[in-house]
Amino acid sequence: MVKYKERLEEQKVFIDGEWTTASKGDTYSIINPSTGKTFVECQKCDVEDTKRAIDAARDAFDNGPWPNMSIKERSEILYKVSDMVAKKTWDLSKMDACCNGVPVLQHIVTILDMSPNFKYVCTRAEDLAKPNRIYGEFPIDQIVLREQDGVVALITPWNVPFWQMALKLPAALISGNTVVFKPASQTPLSAIEIARMFERAGLPKGVFERGYRSGICSRS
C-alpha cells in the first residue's frame, strides 16, 4: 500500500501562466482508495474558469511566440520536461497510485513506457512539417501540408493518467498548438506536476492550461 504520511497542500489550477484558485474558490476532495481517507483538496473549476482557460490559450496562440517558434526551439522545452519526468518517475507514480488505487509499480511501468514520447515527437516533427507529395495518376499531383490547429482540448480518463497524457500532450505542443488540458477529476496530480515541469522548462505563458472538474463542466 502506498500512502502519504500527511495530507498534501491544496492544489491550484494553472491558468494563463499563473497558479490560481477557481473563480468561486470551491474545492473537492480526492480520497486515497488504499486508505479510504482524503489526502488532498483540489480546486473545483466551473464554466467561468473553463472559458478563462480557453481565452488564455487562444490569446497565446494568436499573439504569443509559441506557434512561431521553430521546431528546434519547441523541442528544447519538451526535452527538458522529459528529463524531469525521468527524475520524478517514482513521485509521479506514487501520486497516481494514491488517486486511483492502481499499484505504484504498474504506474512506474506506464510512465517508463510513455515518457520517451516527449522526445520521440520531437524527432518526428521536422519530417512531418515538410510538404508531402503524393503522386497520383498523371497529370495530377497532390501535396499534403500539416498546419497548426490552434487551441487543442485534451481530456484523459482516470485509469492510466500519465500514459494517456503523454500519448496526446507532446504531439499537440510540438506542432505549435496551445492546449487546454482536463484530466479526470479523480486523478489530476501527475498532470499538475507536468504543468509545473513545463513552467520550469520555460513554456511561454498561456500555452498550457490546466484545470479540473466534472464532465458536466467540461462539456461547456
In the predicted model, the low-confidence regions spanning at least 5 consecutive residues are none
CATH fold-level assignment: Aldehyde Dehydrogenase, Chain A, domain 1
Order of helices and strands: EEEEHHHHHEEEHEHEH
Task: Please tally the helical runs, counting DSSP H or I stretches of 4 or more residues.
Answer: 8
CA-CA gap between termini: 37 Å
What is the typical, i.e. mean, pLDDT?
A: 89
Specify the structural class.
Answer: alpha/beta
Strand order of the largest sheet: 7-8-9
CATH superfamily assignment?
Aldehyde Dehydrogenase, Chain A, domain 1
Estimate the helix proportion, in percent: 40-55%
* CATH architecture label name: 3-Layer(aba) Sandwich
Which assembly state applies to the chains in this document? Answer: single chain
CATH class: Alpha Beta
Gist?
This protein has 220 residues and is of the alpha/beta class.
